[in-house]
Write a structure and sequence with these properties.
CATH architecture of the largest domain in chain A: Orthogonal Bundle
Order of helices and strands of chain A: HHEEHHHHHHHHHHHHHH
Shape of chain B: globular
Number of strands of chain B: 0
Strand content of chain B: under 5%
CATH superfamily of the largest domain in chain B: MetI-like
Oligomer: heterotrimer
Strand content of chain A: under 5%
Structural class of chain A: mainly alpha
Number of domains of chain A: 2
Number of helices of chain A: 16
CATH class of the largest domain in chain A: Mainly Alpha
Strand order of the largest sheet of chain A: 1-2
Number of domains of chain B: 2
CATH architecture of the largest domain in chain B: Orthogonal Bundle
Helix content of chain B: over 70%
Chains: A mainly alpha (301), B mainly alpha (278), C alpha/beta (458)
Largest interface: A-B, 101 and 94 residues
Shape of chain A: globular
Number of strands of chain A: 2
CATH topology of the largest domain in chain A: MetI-like fold
Helix content of chain A: over 70%
Order of helices and strands of chain B: HHHHHHHHHHHHHHH
CATH superfamily of the largest domain in chain A: MetI-like
Radius of gyration of chain A: 25 Å
């Protein structure tokens, strides 16, 4: 009894309390993050099998030097770049338009544009897969035939596949990114524009010299999530092609290749090596980004 | 000047009406198609050419007939979402509170860990995590889906940010009144955090409800899979399931849409939480 | 590791109790999670089980196909009728195809959590074989040996003549002709013997009806595989190594390319014979013929209502007159996993379900799989049954072909070693390149570069 109360007293002390509060994070961090990271790095140098793992040195990484992995890497990087190129200017433009004083019914349009973000990626994938079907009557073929074009095969050719993937991304995330920009815009003090008006600045000048620089924190954030979302893209392609195999791997991404090797072909060692490559890419991107934004100095406090 | 503004308004509204139409078009397409037989989709494609004379509710009847697993999946998704939201909110709030209100050894190092977890896509560790879940014996169960993601760095970050606005004198006053450290959290801080719980609950709820890759890897049994995984499995080449797929996809959106209409501001706040103060 | 988890849960619970100590009623969190666990463990009612027998041995079975659940539970009931002294209680679990196979592989690696019996898709079979996760079935198959087509069991075997599986859909390949189109073109399919005949018939069909004679997949391999097997060529060599850069394979690709160039072969809409677009196209009479195994009959009855009564089944063409027309393709098989605790019972039940007359009747009548027991091919209660949806759908009787093929010398794919990895490359890049994207590239050159992308780890 005596012992218990001492323990209790300790637990309730102001010194111990913070550790108790952060304990759940420490535990899940160690078990479900740190351990798997170490495990995956170790396994990437092994051949993993039921009978026990066997060290194979760099063999898994050598195996990765093949055209299919290059293609997956290329696809992921291209997707990341293109999605960033679309997912920043378009939402920014829409948000500025929506935020303009002349605009009516802002809340209504804002809500409508947000709806796609509510749909599960699976539902979105089902719709887009069918919309981009190669039948003459599939929606996208009807659209292009309206413009006098012949019906086409969408999901087996490189360019149309990319159109479909990027449209899917645009459709789902424009509303959300626009919302980020809207809240960014609302933090810009109104008197800045007023004094610009007094100086006789045009709308374009105001956008260039006030809005754009002051939206930088929002842009940095949107860029960050787009970069990581883009590099880790898998589900969209999985659903568009109803599985992880796309014709000539047009939709194969790094995560898709990890899934194919690690889970479908049960080559856990190779899959881990892919994971490590992805990890390194993400870390490099992080560092580049932190340096570019000068965030290193800020993080300290 | 006034006139110019009106013209601008009209132009802007026309522009946004077009944008809004394009935005909801895919969902309308889905909705309209849910009244057509699934075999139509295969033969004619997904489009707006609906013969309203033959349109019917057969797909929905089939959906509600109970001759499929749809509502089992629905229930699974619902249970997982609720459990995960409750646990994640509670635990992450604790952690966020710990970071915001106390100074302790390793605090900065630990918080750096939170940021690291936030910055690394979980796909990187999906294979070892999968093996771990097998070792823990929680494969093919709800806990396999929930446990690895029960403490969410994003929520910790948000709660910390939210709480750092609260003066610490508050704490000392409560201590003087004789409340313990945990009492302060439970009785003073939790009520203060209510608005952020709503936003974060929605953020977490949306990501649990829509989560696809991890549940697909962890659960195997038809009766334990979640709704997104179940819907995806309907696209299998082994059966003609388009009737249920389309009606089921439609029906998967409806509840969220209703919630969204009722709690719009929370949704927007919750889903854009990361950008509030990045 | 389990202990760590338990302790972490304990800590969480402890925090909760301490909070309660201060008078707050914050135990709602823990009771929530408790009740949820009950829900998840109590469900599972839609898993298939047979009629419960008291004292029966518990057996578990994994499949990826809902239709198979009925087959297995019914067979378990029949087993219990015939073996009242040794009854079983079978639990059948289904799941999405890819994930079931993957989880089975991982469970095997871990050596725990495996079912007693499992349906395994052909694309994955090699992985299970090469790591010795399956039990040989020789002793339970041998009693049936004289009644069944042994090639359909031998495919799931090794060089030492151990047999590890019994087929579900490993079917005789046939050619399905749309007779509306064939009649319009004035071509009688029964006169088509060689691929050259087929090619010439295709030219006539194209000229008279404007429709292509056949289609080839870019996301699957049935047509080229069929042509290869007729030549006796395989995708993997005897040691299980990938071997796709062969002259036979290049010849097959050249022949299909020649048909495509002439306009008598199209790329299957949707890229495969199991896609939405393809079924719509087929049902609309968009193509004159298709070569697929007999189990594909079920796709016609399910997806092509408009073709009812219009399709006829004939033998597949061959390269040279007199060559073997007997090729088996497809290939989900069922096996007993070595981790089972009821080895003999599981094996005997499997053999009973798949090889007995009752099982074969069910497979044919409900699932449309051609019976492995050759005696049923001439059993008129089956072959003349006009109520059967498959027999009434097609103009010709599939059993005629089975009888003609006989039970000897059938060629089946070699699925050992690297077959899984090879298959993956073939259906994702090789055929897409060969027939659609790099049609000008020399076939041999293309195959060599494809071969180099196969990742196979022994």
């Amino acid at each position: 009894m005596e012992k218990k109360s001492v323990f209790r007293k300790f637990l309730y002390s102001q010194k111990a309390a913070p550790y108790v509060f952060v304990l759940p994070f420490v535990l899940t961090f160690l078990i479900f993050f740190a351990y798997p990271i170490v495990d995956t790095i170790v396994m990437s140098f092994q051949k993993v099998s039921g009978g026990g793992n066997e060290w194979v040195g760099l063999k898994n990484y050598q195996t990765l030097l093949n055209p299919v992995f290059y293609k997956a890497l290329k696809n992921s990087i291209l997707y990341m770049i293109l999605s960033c190129a679309l997912m920043i200017p378009i939402p920014m433009f829409l948000a500025t338009m929506l935020n303009s004083k002349a605009m009516k019914a802002k809340g209504f349009f804002r809500s409508i544009m947000f709806i796609p973000a509510l749909t599960s990626v699976v539902v979105a994938g089902v719709i887009f897969r069918l919309m981009f079907g190669e039948l003459e009557g599939s929606f996208m073929n009807q659209v292009i035939s309206f413009f006098g074009m012949e019906p086409m095969v969408w999901l087996r050719r490189t360019v149309p596949v990319w159109i479909a993937l990027l449209l899917l991304c645009l459709w789902r995330w424009t509303g959300v990114n626009m919302m980020y920009y809207l809240s960014g815009l609302q933090q810009i003090p109104g008197d800045l524009y007023e004094s610009a008006d007094i100086d006789g600045a045009s709308s374009i000048q105001k956008f260039r010299y006030i809005t754009l620089p002051l939206l930088k924190p929002t842009t940095v954030y949107v860029l960050t999530i787009s970069i990581f979302g883009g590099m880790a893209m898998f589900t969209e392609s999985y659903l568009l092609f109803n599985g992880n195999n796309s014709p000539n791997n047009v939709g194969l991404t790094v995560v898709g290749y990890l899934y194919r090797m690690g889970l479908t072909q049960n080559n856990i060692g190779l899959g881990s090596a892919i994971g490590v490559v992805l990890l390194i890419i993400v870390l490099i991107l992080n560092v580049i980004q932190l340096i570019l934004n000068g965030t290193f100095s800020k993080k300290g406090d | 000047m006034k006139k110019k503004n009106t013209v601008l308004s009209v132009l802007l509204i026309i522009f946004f009406v077009i944008v809004a139409l394009i935005t909801i078009l895919p969902l309308l397409l889905l909705f309209v198609s849910s009244f057509r037989p699934g075999s139509d989709l295969m033969r004619y494609g997904l489009n707006f050419d609906v013969n309203w004379a033959t349109a019917n509710l057969d797909n929905y009847q089939l959906l509600f007939s109970g001759q499929n697993n749809y509502f089992t999946w629905y229930k699974n998704s619902l249970v997982i979402t609720v459990v995960q939201v409750v646990l994640a909110l509670f635990l992450s709030a604790c952690v966020g509170y710990g970071f915001a209100m106390y100074n302790f050894k390793f605090k900065n190092a630990l918080f750096a860990c939170v940021l690291v977890v936030m910055m690394i896509p979980t796909e990187v560790i999906i294979l070892p995590l999968y093996q771990l879940v097998i070792k823990l014996g929680i494969m093919d169960s709800m806990w396999g889906i929930i446990l690895p993601y029960v403490v969410v760095p994003m929520l910790i970050f948000f709660f910390r940010q939210y709480l750092s606005g609260i003066p610490k004198d508050f704490l000392d006053a409560a201590r003087v009144d004789g409340c313990t450290e945990y009492g302060i959290f439970a009785r003073i801080m939790v009520p203060l955090m209510k608005p952020s719980f709503a936003a974060m609950g929605i953020y977490q709820g949306m990501s649990s409800w829509n989560n696809f890759l991890w549940p697909m890897i962890v659960v195997r049994s038809q009766t334990k899979i979640t709704l997104p995984v179940g819907l995806q499995s309907l696209m299998s080449p082994y059966g003609n399931n388009y009737d249920i797929l389309i009606a089921g996809s439609c029906f998967a959106i409806v509840p969220i849409l209703i919630l969204f209409i009722c709690f719009q501001s929370y949704f927007i706040e919750g889903m854009t939480a990361g950008g509030v103060k990045g | 590791m389990k202990r760590k988890l338990v302790s972490s849960l304990l800590c969480v619970a402890m925090v909760a109790t301490m909070l309660a100590g201060c008078g707050g009623s914050s135990d709602s969190g823990s009771s929530d999670s408790g009740s949820a666990e009950d829900t998840s463990s109590s469900d599972g009612e839609t898993q298939g089980t047979n009629t419960f027998v008291d004292g029966g041995t518990e057996l578990s079975l994994w499949t990826f196909q809902e239709l198979h659940v009925g087959f297995w539970t019914e067979m378990a009931d029949k087993w219990n009728e015939e073996n009242p002294d040794n009854p079983i209680n079978l639990t059948v679990t289904t799941g999405e195809s890819h994930s079931v196979q993957q989880k089975l592989l991982v469970a095997c690696q871990a050596g725990e959590g495996t079912p007693d019996i499992a349906d395994i898709e052909i694309g994955y079979y090699g992985s299970f074989l090469k790591d010795d996760y399956l039990l040989p079935l020789n002793d339970v198959v041998e009693p049936y040996q004289n009644d069944v087509v042994m090639s359909r069991i031998e495919m799931y075997g090794d060089q030492e003549d151990n047999w590890y599986g019994i087929d579900f859909h490993l079917g005789a390949s046939v050619c399905y002709y749309n007779m509306d189109i064939m009649n319009e073109a004035g071509v009688d399919p029964s006169t088509i013997v060689t691929w050259d005949d087929y090619y010439n018939a295709g030219l006539t069909v194209l000229e008279k009806t404007g429709k292509p004679m056949c289609a080839v997949e870019t996301a699957d391999l049935f047509l080229p595989q069929l042509m290869m097997l007729e030549k006796g060529a395989q995708y993997v060599d005897e040691d299980g190594q990938p071997n796709i850069a062969t002259q036979d394979h290049a010849d097959v690709i050249d022949f299909i390319r020649k048909m495509i160039d002439a306009g008598i072969c199209e790329i299957a809409p949707g890229g495969g014979f199991h896609t939405e677009e393809w079924y719509g196209h087929l049902n609309d009479g968009g193509v004159a013929s298709i070569a697929m195994p007999l189990w594909y009959m079920g796709r016609f009855t399910d997806y092509c209502p408009d073709l009812n009564g219009k399709m006829a089944i004939y033998e597949i063409p061959v390269w040279n007159e007199g060559d073997t027309r007997e090729v088996l393709q497809g290939g989900t098989g069922t096996s007993v996993l070595k981790f089972t605790e009821h080895e003999d019972l599981a094996k005997e039940f499997l053999a009973f379900a798949k090889l007995s007359e009752e099982g074969n009747r069910y497979e044919w009548e409900e699932l449309g799989f051609d019976p492995i027991r050759s005696s049923l091919w001439t059993d008129t209660s089956i072959t003349e049954n006009q109520d059967n949806k498959f027999l009434s759908y097609f103009q010709t009787n599939p059993f005629d072909i089975l009888v003609k093929n006989g039970t000897e010398g059938l060629t089946a794919p070699n699925i050992s070693g690297s077959y899984s990895a090879t298959y993956n490359v073939l259906v994702s890049t090789t055929y897409a390149n060969a027939f659609e994207l790099s049609t000008d590239q020399d076939a041999m050159e293309l195959l060599e570069s494809e071969q180099s992308t196969i990742v196979y780890d022994e």
